[in-house]
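Lab notebook, bench 4. The sequencing result for the construct came back, and we need a structural model before the next group meeting so we can plan mutations. Quick request posted to the team channel:

Model the 3D structure of this chain.
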Amino acid sequence: MIKDLQNFEGPIDMDFMVKQCTKATSNNGSAYLSLILQDNSGTLDGKMWQITDADIDIAQAGNIVRIIGIMGTYKGHPQLKINELYPVHEGDVDMSRFIPVAPVPIPELESRLEKAIESIKDKDLRLLTKTILAERHDRFVHYPAAVTVHHAYMGGLLYHSLSVLDLCLKAAENYPFLQKDYLIAGALLHDIGKTEELSGYKASSYTTAGNLLGHITMGAMIVDNAGKKLNTPQEKLSYLIHMILAHHGELEFGSPKVPATAEALILHCMDDVDAKMACLVNYLDQTEEGGFTVKIPWMQNALFFKGHKLDS
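Done. Here's the predicted structure in token form:
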């Protein structure tokens, strides 16, 4: 597994999934392949310096490949020098070895999703949320929440959405003036645009529309179109769309609007907390107790200390 290669140097002969493959040109003008390889334990940088057209065909994103090469390091990070590359038929391997999945079984998450939708008391918001998620059920249930940063695994979008919902409802216990129906609908739909922004759960990447528009804009468009078809009252529709537009909190973080309702503010805060905690735990898992993480680029290059566990 990739996690077992972090401190290993030497020859390997292993199967991986290609998460990303880029053809580039070296300083001497020769073509080479730069790959991001994946299994369910993590990702690994790989370089193939001598390539053929057949190698390029084999190394397409989403393919399973057998690689013979040498593990080493480059600028302090593990890197695989690829000497030979062979195709592997998906039917000959257990795909769960290569695709990270949510920590909770997807059927259990689907059950929680159904209960959450049915808990919306307002009939207009319930119908709108139910219709949108039914139309995009397979993608919403299986897509990751991001390509790399947080919840980047199969089922990650659903897992993240439900986690944000749990946090929002906890906040509502402390602040009872918050309207729970908006919190539920907003938490479940805030990232619905990622069903269009991302390409899928296998070697996920950004779609052309995703790069041009982004998931916030796409999510607002999805909800607006559905709301108009369902004749959702305009104030309810605008209130919910505002939550989607404002959930990144600041203009410089991609939000077209900053939060202007209490529910939008809570959604932003809880989305931010859940994304950062999911990102942070990955770094803490790779850090020994009593030590600091490496700089985390997604968190302003901060270092986090991992203290020793206290006695129970």
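The two ends are 32 Å apart (CA to CA).
Will bring this to the meeting.
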